Amino acid sequence: MALRIEDYAMIGDCETAALVGRDGSIDWLCWPRFDSAACFAALLGTSDNGRWLLAPKSQPLEVTRRYRPGTLILETEFRTETGTAVVIDFMPPADGVADLVRIVCGLSGQVTFQTELAVRFDYGSTVPWVTRIEDGTIEMIAGPEQMVLRTAAELYGEDLKTVGEFVVDAGQSVPFVLSYGRSFESPPAPTDPVKALEHTEAFWRAWSDRCSGVGPWTDAVKRSLITLKALTYAPTGGMVAALTTSLPEHLGGTRNWDYRFCWLRDATFTLLAFVHLGYYEEAKAWRDWLLRAVAGSPRQVQIVYGIGGERRLPELTIPWLSGYENSSPVRVGNAASEQLQIDIFGEIADAIFQGYRLGLQPSKRGEALQPVISEYLATVWRLPDEGIWEIRGKPQHFVHSKVMAWVAFDRTASYLKAQGLAELS
What we know:
Layout: E1 8-12, E2 17-21, E3 25-30, E4 38-40, E5 51-56, E6 62-67, E7 74-79, E8 83-90, E9 98-118, H1 121-124, E10 129-132, E11 138-142, E12 145-151, E13 156-158, E14 161-169, E15 173-182, H2 193-208, H3 218-230, E16 232-233, E17 238-239, E18 262-263, H4 267-276, H5 280-293, E19 304-305, E20 316-317, E21 331-332, H6 343-357, H7 364-380, H8 399-418
Antiparallel strand pairs: 1-2, 2-3, 3-4, 3-5, 5-9, 6-7, 7-8, 8-9, 9-14, 9-15, 10-11, 11-12, 12-15, 13-14, 16-17, 18-19, 20-21
């Protein structure tokens, strides 16, 4: 059974992310993208649906966790009766290689660890073929996907899982590197875990240290910025609302939605967060993603898109997963992409205006888009819609939608006036 959601911590590489439990189990990971099919899906089912446990064999006396300052490198410290050890979990920033690195370091005494790796492709349903190739690498293949695991620890197969035990002494470290690739290609090249750790720490520190001080809240603001950055798909600039699907609004309920997509109404808040703190590159990437995503007829503008700007997000249920704490159904995709939500036009116009007001260079696409949206909105703002609450019944009239339609007209007028492109009283 999955842990309480507050007992998970996120690691990621700005293309996907994983959830690591206090018990040392990675229970959620979609590779190679946030919206790919999960290969560890125990969060929404059981350990048989995929996970990677790395923890002391005996019950720890105490477990503490922390991120290395200014980074997304997670350290989980286990204190046992025989000694203390820390597991360092991270995903190096994606640069053509997708790795998940776990390093067990002994701090004092001696600790016996156990590991259990159960890779289950396609949302916990597909058991891969597992083989050990000549250099000792463990290779796992099913369909188009493959993973390889490299470690010096002795591992063996048992009950369709890769398991093992090892002892770590004070001052000793035992690294594990799990890499993702395509089954029709050569296995991913080996990664030096120590160099990867140094590179990952340098990447995050250099990025987060750009954050200007905001008094006693600086550390909290940096941590929030790191989270926003980690939820951004670096190749496109799109930002997912969450890295998970189907966590229920309340336990046992059915309002379990897939949030691994990009909602337009998040744009203004994201832009403001980045730009106010000087992260213009990320703000520009997010704005440019938005403009590419909505390109085309304003009649076809959606409230939500895929991280690459994909428009078709068909909603399916996954019947073999029981759901978080038995909250079913488990869904992938989101039918809200087909809804009319008039407020999004206000959010688009506000994002463009706020970006300009706060120093982003004007975009020709944005300038061209605004009058087209205004013309279309003038014909539809009186219509009923599904609203910000994304109701799945008959469309209704929502005050929020009407107010945001006014915002769209107001921000467009303000933008044009600011640039001297219109005479407005």
